[in-house]
Design brief:
five-stranded antiparallel β-sheet; alpha+beta; globular; 859 residues; 45% helix
């Protein structure tokens, strides 16, 4: 073996040959060191010394003495330059450098030089360690820290933080690091996160009891506080003012999740270190939530804890939820907190959280609270909805000084309107309110934000009540729904049955379809109205009435699609292929499934089996299954995330089983689903589709239609090239311009009725699968299922990406799916595709006025 590689590796062969090679390598290093030292080339000498250390197995045995003699013989000036050159040559701090050898070399070179020559170099090295997420060279860092401590110098806070993160994660097998860190109690939290920086700034102004309290939170490393932890915390809280503690902790927690103030330069092991919480600080956050639970209940605390749950569960690509442990700690704090505000946050989170472990904690907390009150879980959830200061359905007026603030709930959001001291309406809070009543103003603005979040959660909860078979006594329903200041804003836009008589609100009064007032006894039974089983004439009449009165429902109810059994499904008997053979974006599908109450596992490209997506229906004794499999491309590993999960899944059958039937599973990458039989259990046949109640079949298939309609790659306007390698071109074309599904048919019929009311109605027409739009430059066809666009007469594809998908914005006037768009009226919220289609239609009707160069280039 010849060349540079031979200097750094052992030759293969017998032991004698290996020994001769190693001896020759060491001799060459001794000669090279002497030559470079004589030449005065300290930079090259530093590199050679590090190569010698590697060649010697990171030890200085045998010929090392000769090298040391050469180094000690150098003039002091050369040794000074060499010390600095060695520090530079050993970068980066995460690299596989000869750590022990480096320290030995530095001591040999600089031991007799005047002053602490290497302090600056040590500090510089430690500061470089502080720029990374975790320290690979932990032993080197510990040695540098010891040297600095011996010299009486402080240790850079960022270096302490990096060592703490390394010890918490224990990725590099350095078990003695945790014990070593007991020498470094400060700073009490790691800098680099917005909340931690604020905490350090505040603590710098506080006395010892504050520092002792926060230091106690570092020990919050378990799933829940022990009795001893609580006892110590209460003792530490004793000397402090409760209000000051609460306000301070809430101010810190409100900053959690903001971008890092000291971004990492990179990490060998962490996927997204700048997005995740600092693992050391995460324990402190858990401790802070435990402290809040020991303080008297307060609405602001419940609000901040609820937000912390959502922020901590926010998904990071390739990682998953940001920090479930912190989210769980915040939930535990809400469960332990007394008062209606904490209960309201738990109820809201129950409709928003999809992460299984956290959701289980929330549900358990609500069930315990229900048991303590002698109520059902649903009753507690209903009673937990606050009024947020509303004094009548959807409205409250607050006098603040000489001014007036009107809080109203309009559709899916709350609005504040102001009148100044003269009674004149103004756009924002008057200056005198901002100056003299800042606390009241802050609470009002917080109420607006809370209302918006609660409304969203309650819409999702109400939409699930069809399958829950929920019913109420009329008196109870009026109290909790019809006349509730907040829920009433949703209730009064929905349809109900009272003792099987359909009815809905008009002008604040519950009336039948013939406008007769409903006069019901308190014991009458109330249910949500559903179109399944209703006569077409009744359904149409309710739709027309909603449109006539301009009522926008919070979700599709009167216009809800009904999925009836097809001849093909009668033939297959036990399964539906209606939504098979689609390609869905796996992560989007997974999120949608969770929101709709389905249980699903992300498929990883591994040799393992997974169950299908499942929705349990305990009220019906059934379990719905949607069979899917990972799609890795033509090769099994082509289309994966960095974490190894499939980017897309292929869809297959929908089936129903008894809820207690054994679980079906199939290989992650595809194959036959088989029932896992354990403990001698016999296989269970699927329930024939004809035996599934009409409401259950319709609602389950509606969910599946939603998954396909939203998550299909065919609905992506940027995939006209067929995606990776063009593999999906045929599917994208067939989906993006093919036959309409039930939800698209409903959309088509609605648009046809609404066109006369739209400002662009005279330029549009509905024909078959398309909305035709006449612009000034061209005529266009917008597919009513996917929203994709063709330009007539050649059917040239036009790509317009909705604003929320593109980030910069491409469709003018886009709405989130609310009740109006461009001066028109929509009878329900939540159909984003409908809003996108109408947005595109408005844009293209005025195509001569389009300025976006990405769109103009296609026209």
């Amino acid at each position: 073996m010849t060349g540079p590689t031979a200097d750094l590796t052992s030759a293969t062969g017998d032991n004698a040959a290996a020994d001769r090679t190693a001896t020759g390598s060491r001799a060459r290093h001794v000669t090279a060191v002497a030559r470079l030292a004589a030449a005065g080339d300290m930079t090259e000498l530093a590199d050679e010394l590090l190569r010698a250390a590697v060649s010697n197995g990171n030890r200085w045995d045998g010929d090392g003495d000769e090298i040391f003699v050469t180094l000690r013989g150098l003039p002091a000036a050369d040794r000074t330059r060499l010390a600095h050159a060695l520090m530079e040559a050993a970068d980066p701090p995460t690299g596989h450098q000869p750590i022990t050898s480096l320290l030995i070399l530095l001591e040999v070179i600089a031991h007799d030089l005047p002053g602490d020559l290497l302090s600056a170099a040590r500090v510089g090295r430690l500061e470089k360690h502080g720029t990374v997420h975790c320290v690979w060279a932990g032993r080197e860092a510990m040695a540098l820290v010891d040297a600095e401590l011996a010299a009486g110098h402080p240790i850079p806070a960022t270096a302490v933080a990096a060592l703490r993160r390394t010890a918490r994660l224990d990725q590099y097998g350095q078990p003695d690091l945790a014990a070593f860190l007991k020498k470094l109690p400060d700073p009490v939290v790691n800098p680099g996160e917005a909340w931690a920086d604020q905490a350090l700034a505040d603590l710098a102004k506080r006395d010892a009891p504050w520092h002792q309290l926060v230091r106690h939170t570092v020990s919050a490393t378990s799933a829940k506080p022990t009795a001893q932890w609580d006892k110590t915390a209460r003792a530490l809280l004793g000397p402090l003012e409760v209000e000051e503690v609460r306000d301070t902790l809430l101010a810190w927690l409100a900053l959690v999740g903001r971008p890092r103030t000291l971004p990492f330069n990179g990490s060998v092991y962490a996927v997204a270190p700048n997005e995740e919480y600092d693992p050391y600080n995460a324990d402190v956050l858990r401790g802070l939530t435990w402290l809040l639970a020991l303080l008297p209940a307060h609405p602001a605390a419940a609000r901040v804890l609820g937000t912390l749950v959502e922020v901590s569960l926010r998904k990071i690509p390739g990682v998953g939820p940001r920090n479930p442990k912190v989210a769980n700690a915040a939930v535990a704090a809400l469960v332990r907190s007394e008062g209606d505000a904490a209960l309201a946050e738990l109820a809201r989170l129950a409709s928003r959280v999809t992460y299984k472990t956290t959701l289980k904690m929330i549900n358990t907390g609500l069930e315990k609270r229900a048991e303590a009150l002698g109520l059902t879980r649903e009753e507690v959830t209903e009673l937990a909805v606050p009024s947020y200061g509303l004094t009548e359905v959807g409205r409250a007026v607050h006098r603040i000084g000489d001014c007036e603030a009107e809080l109203t709930v309009d559709g899916p959001r709350a609005t504040l309107r102001w009148r100044n001291a003269a009674g004149k309406q103004v756009k924002a809070a008057p200056a005198v309110v901002r100056r003299d009543h800042s606390d009241e103003l802050k609470e009002l603005k917080a109420a607006v934000r809370d209302i918006d979040k609660m409304l969203s959660a309650q819409v999702e909860r109400l939409d699930r009540q069809f399958l829950a078979r929920r019913e109420w006594r009329y008196g109870t329903w009026r109290e909790r729904y019809g006349d509730h200041p907040l829920l009433g804003t949703l209730t009064r836009r929905l349809l109900w049955t009272v003792d099987d008589t359909p009815c809905g609100y008009v002008d604040g009064e519950l009336r039948t379809l013939t406008d007769e007032p409903v006069r019901a006894a308190p014991g009458a039974v109330v249910r949500l109205w559903h179109p399944v089983g209703r006569e077409p004439a009744e359904i149409v009449a309710w739709r027309e009435r909603l449109e006539r009165h301009g009522i926008t429902q919070p979700f599709k109810q009167a216009h809800r699609e009904v999925y009836v059994l097809t001849d093909a499904e009668r033939t297959t008997r036990t399964y539906s292929n209606r939504f098979a053979a689609h390609f869905l974006r796996q992560h989007q599908f997974n999120s949608l499934a969770a929101v709709r109450g389905w249980r699903n596992q992300l498929r990883l490209s591994v040799d393992d089996e997974y169950p299908p997506a499942v929705k349990e229906l305990p009220e019906w004794g059934l379990r719905a299954e949607y069979w899917i499999e990972g799609d890795g491309g033509e090769r099994w590993d082509e289309d994966l995330t960095e974490a190894g999960s499939y980017l897309r899944v292929r869809t297959d059958q929908v089936r129903f089983y008894p809820i207690d039937a054994p679980q079906n599973t199939a290989h992650a990458g595809g194959g036959e689903y088989r029932m896992r039989l354990r403990d001698g259990r016999a296989p269970v046949e699927p329930v024939p589709l004809e035996e599934i109640p009409d409401l259950v079949l319709s609602e389950v298939l509606r969910d599946v239609d939603l998954f396909v309609g939203v998550a299909s790659v065919g609905a992506d306007p940027t995939w006209q090239d067929g995606g990776p390698g063009g593999r999906f071109r045929e599917y994208w074309t067939s989906y993006g311009f093919g036959d309409l599904g039930p939800s698209a048919v409903t959309r088509r019929d609605l648009i046809a009725r609404l066109l006369p009311r739209l400002t662009i109605g005279d330029r549009c027409s509905v024909e078959g699968r398309f909305l035709h739009v006449r612009g000034d430059l061209h005529t266009y066809k917008i597919h009513l299922g996917s929203g994709n666009i063709l330009r007539s007469p050649s059917d040239q594809y036009v790509c317009i990406v909705p604003a929320s998908a593109s980030g910069a914005g491409a469709t003018a006037g886009e709405d989130s799916g609310g009740g109006s768009l461009g001066g028109g009226y929509l009878p329900f919220e939540g159909d984003r595709t409908l809003s996108v289609i109408l947005s595109k239609a408005m844009l293209l009707a005025a195509d001569a006025e389009i300025t976006d160069p990405r769109i103009r280039s296609q026209l």
